[in-house]
Every structure is written in C-alpha cells, then in structure tokens.
Write a structure and sequence with these properties.
Layout: E1 11-15, H1 20-31, E2 35-40, H2 45-53, E3 58-62, H3 71-78, E4 86-89, H4 104-132, E5 136-141, H5 154-174, E6 179-186, H6 195-199, H7 201-210, H8 223-230, E7 241-244
Parallel strand pairs: 1-2, 1-4, 2-3, 4-5, 5-6, 6-7
Helix pairs in contact: 1-2, 1-8, 3-4, 4-5
C-alpha cells in the first residue's frame, strides 16, 4: 500500500533552495520521492548534492525574484522534469530599521520578493496545474510575523501578513479546482536572516526564554511539515497556516 505521505513521481519547485529553510525543505521533499527544481540567485551546489544522494532528479533554475520578469521562465524550465505538482514559495529577504527611519527602497525590495513574486509565481504554477487537470499543492512560507507585529522589520511584517492573507484567498479560489494552498509559519530558526538576532546576546536570551522548546529551530525541523502539506495526507487541508515554532505562539 502506498503511503499517503509519498511524493513519488511528483515534481516540486522550491524557491530560495540554496541554503537554510529552502534547502531543508527541498531535501525533505526529495527524500519523500519528489524531483526538485531549485530556484535561486546562486547555484545551489550543496542542495543538488543532497538531492542526488537521495536518488532524485535535480534542476537548478537561476532567477532573481526581486522582479516578476523570470516567473514564466521558471515554470517553463521546471517542466523539463515533468508537470509541476508542488510549488514552495520560500524565497524571502529582510531589512531592519526603526519604522521612523525605514526607507522606500527597503520597503519595495522586501515586498517585491516576499509578497509580489510569491503571488505571481503561485498564479503561474496554478495556471499550469489547472490546464493539465491534475491539481497540485502550493506551500507559502509565512512567519510568526504573519500573526505578530515584531519590531524594526516593517516591510517584512507587512509582506508576511500579506502572504498569510493571500494563502487564504488562493485556497478559497482554487480548492474547488484541485489545488491545495497552505502555508508554514516558521518560528525562530537558525538561518542567515536571524544571524543578527542570535549575535545580540540580549535579544537571543529573550527569544529563547519565550520558546517552550528551549532552542532555536533547525532547518530540518521544517521537513515533516512540508512533506505533509505537499502530500495526499493533506488532501482536505486548505488555507491553513501551520506554525512550526517550538511552541512560541502557544506561550
């Protein structure tokens, strides 16, 4: 009997898969059976090695999601592996400054990558999924700041709050067309984006004191959630934002 968590025969597009959370998600999907098209600005050498070690096919797609220009090409190139079944919108950037000092350039840079490109890539993937009549899975990588305000990250909070709303909207529109749209909201993870927080002794201590699990998340902690939402096990899950946060939101 085939496991409902199996991704055998599936093709997944994962953005921002060269390091950190995106890399961990791509590897987890591959270990569950999916072939991977990794999208990023730099060559995902380590990711490629891990996915090929799992016995899956791998395709690297170079693209800067600071604009929507490469989006049609991303889906077209990914289809060299076969029809796209899964999209993980993971690519994201962050800019830190007090709200009184926040610049328009930093606002636009973050919103363009984290929200605008995520929407239009979901749109492109959904069109392909609907055209072939097989449906698919779209997973957006949200944040704790989809639920909370945070400090010194105005555009990041706005983009991740917007992405949570888009996840629900797209689920409403596409659930009846065979596409599951959900999101994962990682808590405080050990990634490049949180390096400044972890190096600030006071902030690091205050964050750890709030996390019931007592530690920062590791990228591999996201793998199971991603596989679940990408699989048939989540066939009746639509518009959900799954927090993987060590209990932060429960505190």
């Amino acid at each position: 009997m085939t496991s409902p968590f199996s991704l055998e025969g599936k093709v997944a597009v994962v953005t921002g898969a060269n390091t950190g959370l995106g890399q961990a998600i791509a590897v987890a999907l591959a270990e569950a059976g999916a072939d991977i098209a990794a999208v990023g600005r730099t060559a995902p050498v380590d990711t490629e090695q891990a996915i090929k070690a799992a016995g899956r096919r791998f395709l690297s797609i170079e693209a800067d999601l600071g604009s929507t220009e490469p989006i049609p090409r991303i889906i077209a190139e990914a289809e060299a592996l076969g029809a796209v079944d899964i999209l993980v919108n993971n690519a994201g950037i962050i800019r830190r400054a007090a709200a009184l000092d926040f610049t328009e350039a930093d606002w636009d840079a973050v919103v363009d990558v984290n929200l605008k490109s995520a929407f239009f890539l979901a749109q492109a993937a959904a069109r392909s999924m609907i055209d072939r009549g097989r449906g698919g899975k779209i997973i957006n990588i949200a944040s704790l700041l989809s639920f909370q305000g945070g400090i010194r990250v105005a555009s990041y909070t706005a983009s991740k709050s917007g992405l949570a709303g888009l996840t629900r909207l797209l689920a409403n529109e596409w659930a009846g067309r065979g596409i599951n749209v959900n999101a994962i909201a990682p808590g405080y993870f050990e990634t490049n984006n949180t390096e400044a927080l972890r190096e600030d002794a006071e902030r690091n201590r205050s964050i750890l004191e709030r996390i019931p699990a007592g530690r920062w998340g590791r990228p591999a902690d996201l793998g199971g959630a991603a596989v679940f939402l990408a699989s048939d096990a989540a066939a009746y899950v639509h518009g959900h934002i799954l927090a993987v946060d060590g209990g932060w939101l429960a505190r």
